[in-house]
Amino acid sequence: MKNLTDSFVSLGHWPSAGSFGFNTDILATNPINLSVVLGVLIFFGKGVLNDLLDNRKQRILSTIRNSEELRRGAIEQLEKARARLRKVEMEADEYRMNGYSEIEREKINLINATSYSLEQLENYKNETLHFEQQRAINQVRQQVFQQALQGALGILNSCLNSELHFRTISANIGILGAMEEITD
């Protein structure tokens, strides 16, 4: 192995007078080596690189198309949702207005029914008061009549004797008899 290493080391010391050999000067050989490597990579790698770039471009375009389709679908769904929202809002407004008008109608009906009931109660009260007044007036009349009758009977009994009493009864019977003849 030592011989093999010595042969490479001795190669570095060869004079470059027209012979082939390794140049160990790094600053002089690096740009040349790099240009050769880059040239080979560009020549042979151009097709592979173009294929990779084309595949990447197709995937990006496909992703963009898919995104556009998804965007259009989302916009359609958004428009449908907005239309549904408008419809629901209109229905809610309609229910709200119908509810308010129904409440107002029920309120008016309740007020009217209460007013009617109050009027009937007022009428019943007035009728009851009138009836009670008439009853009270009749009772007072009856009591006054009874007192007057009792007073008149008392006066008659004290003033009349049996003969005057007999003449009064006879006169009344005569008047009744005359009335009976007139009616026949």
Spatial shape: rod-shaped
The number of helices is: 3
Question: Strand content of the residues, in percent?
Answer: under 5%
Structural class by secondary-structure content = mainly alpha
Task: Write down how many β-strands occur, each being a DSSP E stretch of 2 or more residues.
Answer: 0
Residue stretches low in confidence (pLDDT < 50, at least 5 long) are: 3-16
**Helicity range of the residues?**
over 70%
What does this structure look like?
With 184 residues, the chain is an all-alpha fold. The chain has helices at 2-11, 26-159, 162-183. Mean pLDDT is 82; it is low at 3-16. Pfam families: ATP-synt_B (PF00430). Residues 64-98 form a coiled coil. Its main location: membrane.
